[in-house]
Amino acid sequence: MKIKILKNLSVSGLCFFSAYIMLFTSCNKPLPDATPIIYPPVNNNSSTIGDMLNSDTSFSFFKAAATKVGMLAQFSDTTKILTVFIPNNNAFRASGIPSVNVVNALPPATLGGIVGYSIIPGQQYLSTTLPDSFPNIQLPTSITIGQLPGTSINLQLSTFPSVSATGFYDNNIPVVQPDLRMKNGVVHVVAAIVAPPSQLLKDAMYNNPNLTYFKAAVARADSGQTGLNKIDSLLGYAVTNMTVLAPSNNAFQQLLFGLIYSALLQEGFSQSNAGTTATALSGSPDVFSNPLLFSSITAADVRGILVYHLLATDQGAGFQPNIRVFSNNFSSTPTFYTTLINSVFPTHPGILTQATFTGPFVTKLQFTGYGTFPPGGAPYSGTPANAISLDNQAVNGVYYVIDQVLLPQ
After folding, report:
1. pTM of the model
2. pLDDT in tens, 29-60
3. Domain ranges, ordered by start, for the chain
4. Which of 178, 221, 226, 250 is most buried, with most CB under 10 Å away?
């Protein structure tokens, strides 16, 4: 049985750029090295960050966490300079931690992650010194996650502050009180705990029960590919910086059912038989590994769809999936963002995106693809895909679960 589906969505010759280029070229740009503070600092504040934690009871939860993991003393060290995104007690409560007793009951590894991820060592970053360029900047925290392969250079877990018309954020968490200037640095008080990621995109996404079709689609798209040409390898590469829009299981099922059903009708199946067969074929992620469909749902077809779901930018070496965009970094006005499909079609307009804010928080995020199903509609005239799961951060990027498959043509 030959079913000619997805034939207009084939993307051939797609390849990713080398790991070296991806590692050292990022759209989440670090700031240039800031000029070290020469004491006395701004406001001539004689109190250290540690003094603030010891005297201000609104930070007692954070103080308890830092004390338990032996990190409190560094906040009083006047030989160091720090930028710290500190959650106050209300922020702990907003994150589901209601008391100091609960803080003290948490595993040291959890508390060490919370405290360590809040610290940007070695520099003072004020809200007024951060650029408002899209999407954010990448700054190393105090958490070491290994070494750069082949070197002795430590890899630090990054955090991503941003400043925009909607506010000042660390990752996707609003800052509620910025620029508390202390003797040994600056404190920004955040509205909730800025949690460090603990998994790579590959592990986080493949273990998501709503992304089993996505995982199967990646396997099909990677057929015949090697190394970092494989989407699977990119998702598992710790030093990338990616944004992935991952269609849910139901999103893939709807698209596949419609494509298979339409193709079967064209081949002479009755509506009843076409519906039954299409339901059976699309009802499992095995649809992507079904040999009967290999000539129709080709690896290139699936690859063309998936790369349209990876945001990418061109910094002079071709389009690369090198951008980590949190929901608050998207514009509240409809805006186009390029994707990895632009590595094959550089003039492709990309994905049309719009965020809806309620206060500083994104309460709705929509993505509209160029193509429509059934095919033939005007570009970007299809129903937008809604993000049904926002800001799922991993060590090497962030992913969104969306309720439709976006079509690049």
Report:
1. 0.88
2. 444 444 444 444 444 578 999 999 999 999 99
3. 7-25+199-402, 42-190
4. 221
